[in-house]
Amino acid sequence: MAVIRTNKWGELFLKHVHNQKDEELAFQRLFIQPLQPLFQFGTDTELATYLEKVGLFTLGDTDALSLFITKNYWVFLQEKFLELKEAWKGPNVPIYLLLANEHLKNRQTDVKGMMGLSFENGIVLIVSETIEANDLFALLIHEYHHVCRLSHTKENEETITLLESMVMEGLAELAVKEWLGEGYLAPWTSLYDKTWNDKWADIISPKKLQLMGRRRYKDLLYGNAKKNIPHMLGYYLGYQLCHQAASLLNEETTALLTTPAEKIYRYGSIEDGFKNNKP
After folding, report:
1. Paired sense of beta strands 95-99 and 3-4, if any
2. Do 167 and 145 share a structural domain?
3. What single DSSP character describes residue 27?
4. Can you give the residue ranges of the DUF2268 domain (predicted)?
5. Is 276 a member of any domain?
6. For residues 120 and 146, what is the distance between their CA atoms, to the nearest angstrom?
7. Cα distance between residue 150 and residue 258, in whole Å
8. Residues 219 and 128 grouped into a single domain
9. DSSP symbols for 44-74
10. Upper half-sphere CA count for residue 28 (Cβ side, 13 Å)
11. Which CA distances in Å does 268 have to 65, 167, 203, 262, 277?
């Protein structure tokens, strides 16, 4: 299983599509239908709409696709996946590497123009056609770390708490730091280092950390300007929490991978809901 040769999907798409109707049908058949086992949307059209929203390329990106499929990313990813799988004793899951659209490529300040989607049974990586090898590796580290932790916690979208979601994100970036260094950390890990406002500590209280189901606390993770919740606040605090806990516990990625979120919280100096503890 592991890395699926989605570059072959791209070759088929570019070779056999001759008109708009054919393009639309081929796009769904080649790039959407194979992902349904992961996402389980009601229809392929619904899944296509969702994936475009998070950053998947569109029918107008054929020039970028032509360049993308010539790269050596798939061989590189397979090699790195095997390294991580051995180091973490993780599961063997399919990894789908796909091209990003222009909107995602332009999101450099928070996600470096790339996106990963992880499930217990697979990973989707959406990246630019010119992504550097170590940036791709960093994304793989982050997403495969999620897969490994999910295989241990057995959480799903309906059962996972806000605290566990924050810990998952923080630990995944600590793994990136361990393997590649601080230079490859996601931008959100240091987003508020110089602009932190102590008033934000009240936004995520100890009680809210126990909220269950991602839909209930989406705004706390990603931010919501209309509700005065800073962009990526939950992600940022999750990394600060895990960084502090890892330092006090003196543990590396392998041990932290299975450490309960409550223990990370206990050692992360946020018992008072981040109050009086500047991240």
Report:
1. parallel
2. no
3. H
4. 74-265
5. no
6. 8
7. 10
8. no
9. HHHHHHHHHHHTB--TT-HHHHHHHTTSSHH
10. 13
11. 43, 10, 17, 10, 10
Shared domain check, 132 and 47: yes
Look up residue 103 and give its two tokens.
Answer: 């909107």
Same domain, 120 and 171: no
| Angle between helix 73-88 and 6-16 (nearest 10) | 160
Determine phi and psi for 240, rounding to 5 degrees. Answer: -60, -40
pLDDT over 50 at 199, yes or no? yes
CA distance 145 to 123: 11
* Cα–Cα nearest to 201, from 94, 102, 276: 276
- Does residue 75 lie within any of the structural domains? yes
Whether residue 95 contacts residue 73, with contact meaning beta carbons closer than 8 Å, is answered with: no
**Span 202-261, pLDDT tens digits:** 899 889 999 999 999 999 999 999 999 999 999 999 999 999 999 999 999 899 999 999
Residue 278 belongs to some domain of the structure: no
Locus of tokens 């919280």: 265
Same domain assignment for residues 147 and 186: no
In terms of residue numbers, what domain contains 196? 162-267
For residue 116, the surrounding DSSP H or E stretch is strand 115-119
55 vs 102: CA distance, rounded Å? 8
Total number of domains in the chain: 2
For residue 190, being part of any structural domain is answered with: yes
Do 7 and 93 lie in a common domain? yes
Q: Decide: 116 and 126 in contact? Cβ < 8 Å.
A: yes
Which of 134, 153, 172 lies at the terminal end of a domain, its last residue? 153
| 133 and 38 co-located in one domain | yes
Q: In this model, does residue 273 exceed pLDDT 50?
A: no
- pLDDT tens track for 178-196: 999 999 999 999 999 999 9
Query: How far, in Å, CA of 209 to CA of 146, rounded?
Result: 19
In this structure, the answer to whether residues 34 and 99 fall within a common structural domain is yes
